[in-house]
Amino acid sequence: MFNKTFYSRLADEFAEVHKNFNPHKFILDVTRGLSDRSLNERMRNTSLVLKNHLPNDYKKAVEILQTVIPQMPGGYTNLLFPDFVGLYGHDHVDHSMEALKFFTRFGSSEFAVREFLKRDFRKAIGYMNQWAKDKNYHVRRLASEGSRPRLPWSFKLEEVIKNPTATFAILEQLKQDPELYVRKSVANHLNDISKDNPNHMLTLVNSWDKSHAHTSWIIKHASRSLIKKGHSGSLAVFDFEKNVKVNIENFVLKNTKLKLGDTLQFDFDVVSKKKTSQKLVIDYLIHYRKKHGELSPKVFKLTELTLLPAQRTHLSKKQKMKDFTTRKHFAGVHELEIQVNGRILDKRQFHLSV
User: Fold this and answer.
1) 157 by DSSP, 3-state: which?
2) Which tens digit of pLDDT belongs to each residue from 279-314?
3) Residue-wise pLDDT tens digits, 19-44
4) Less packed terminus of the chain by CB within 10 Å, N or C?
5) Nearest to residue 39, comparing CAs of 3, 85, 5, 7?
6) Maximum distance among all Cα pairs of the chain, rounded to whole angstroms
């Protein structure tokens, strides 16, 4: 994304609005050592180079950035505009926060705004409480996403981890948001909180009206980590059975010896052993063999169902064993487990060769 074609377009746009901008010199500077830099290193380097090609007056530099960004294609590369603010705007908080609010409509200011939360949490969160009420859904989403305690690719917000109620006003405002983009952020924010402060998270969502479709969606997706762990409080939110009485029968792996690229396929029956209906969430865990030989479990969602007294239901699953950027497979014995409402009820082993 940050390549010579992009930088040529960017340089032309800056030259249009800033008479002292030298596009040729900018391209030479910003592409020096380009091949050795990762995606985010390229973005950060762009901000650093821009500092030397824009006015020293911060507010004038931001004004130029605000004129250029609407002319650029939307997407990840537009994160460089708030990145500039996150780097150089600390002495101009009010101006910077308004700039981040503007930039987020063209990409996202979620990473840059955390620099201000880290330095002056109270002031920054005050802005974000107001953003949660904004008419623009990108701005509302920034209020939630930027203040997540454990935003991926960013540092933890220790202020929120220590005091999860610090962002509750934002979440309260957005709990019925009509935009899925915003609701996903609220659910992820709550899921972050559940990793450090599950009781705080559950207390909040239990105070909400689950009959509202948008709120119910948020709560369900926010509870995913706790439900996978079988956390009793999260199970209770959706009336999943606490005292599960089921058997796993006819648990069969089609092939116990797989090669990378093959498909893991398994079948089993879930059989009720209770005289009343049971609401179940059924997952499976694969314990992957890691580089140094240890096993690391990964939980996968299979299904949710209500099992009637004495009912038997048959389930099956196929999963291709292939490498991802986030998961590399290693040879050896792996384990497969069936989990019902957080309880491991049966397991099998299979061997993977790579």
Assistant:
1) coil
2) 999 999 999 999 999 999 999 999 999 999 999 999
3) 999 999 999 999 999 999 999 999 99
4) N
5) 3
6) 80
Residue appearing with tokens 């559950």: 202
pTM here is 0.80
* SS3 per-residue string spanning 180-204: HHHHHHHHHHHHHHHHHCHHHHHHH
Task: Please answer whether residues 278 and 319 qualify as being in contact, where contact means their C-beta atoms are separated by less than 8 angstroms.
Answer: no
Length of the chain: 354
Helix boundaries (H) for the chain: 4-17, 23-31, 39-51, 58-68, 80-88, 93-103, 112-119, 121-131, 137-145, 158-162, 168-174, 180-196, 198-206, 213-222, 224-228, 232-237
Closest CA to 195 of 232, 224, 236: 224
Distance CA 26, CA 8 (A): 9
CB atoms within 10 A of CB 145: 25
Among 192, 202, 109, residue whose Cα is nearest residue 158: 192
Domains and CATH numbers, the chain: 1-109 (no CATH), 246-353 (2.60.40.10)
